[in-house]
Amino acid sequence: STAGPIRTDGGEELLAYMPSHVTGDLNRLADPNYSHQYYVDGPSTYGDVFFGNEWHTALVGALGHGGQGLFALDITDPKGTQVGYPSFSESDASDLVLWEFSDADDADMGYSYGDPVIVRMNNGKWVAIFANGYNNTDSDGNVSSTGNAVLYIVDIETGDIIRKLDTGVGV
Q1: Whole-structure pTM value
Q2: Separation of alpha carbons 81 and 6, rounded Å
Q3: Most buried pick, 59, 70, 94, 169, via CB within 10 A?
Q4: Per-residue exposure over 22-55, b if at least 16 CB sit within 10 Å of its own CB, e if not
Q5: Rounded Cα distance, 11 and 42, in Å
Q6: Which residues pair with 151 in a beta bridge?
Q7: Could you give the CA distance from residue 132 to residue 4 in angstroms, rounded to a whole number?
Q8: pLDDT of 66-122, one tens digit each?
């Protein structure tokens, strides 16, 4: 298919994105004694969502072992042909980022390897749903007080937590 953000006709890169959660470690790539580092290592998903009185295509990605967090991008118009949508250009880069969510936003966030999902709730609001992942007790200044497994439901446009479901069990 050549429609949408996933293309099979040549592999031309249209966008490169590095979440702010991992940019602090980029200097390690140039270290002569480099050992492998993870950056954006988790799964991602995309889907059509409705907010701001318009349809958008949102991508939600997890950092996996690269960090305790997820991010969402507005990938609606990669070629920049539609009025009102950010294009994949340096001048529009900040408009492409819908949100970033990390353990700084909620200490129960861990290293998430599960596939995030994008769904429409019964009230019509579009959301991303994802698990908090493991090691939410990593000592990085934002440590879970329980270590419990948590499921997040966040607004797809803003990343605000709509609901946080704590399983009551964890490590």
Answers
A1: 0.84
A2: 18
A3: 70
A4: beeeeeeeeeeeeeeeebbbbebebbebebeeee
A5: 20
A6: 131, 165
A7: 28
A8: 888 999 999 998 777 777 776 677 666 778 899 999 989 998 998 899 999 999 999
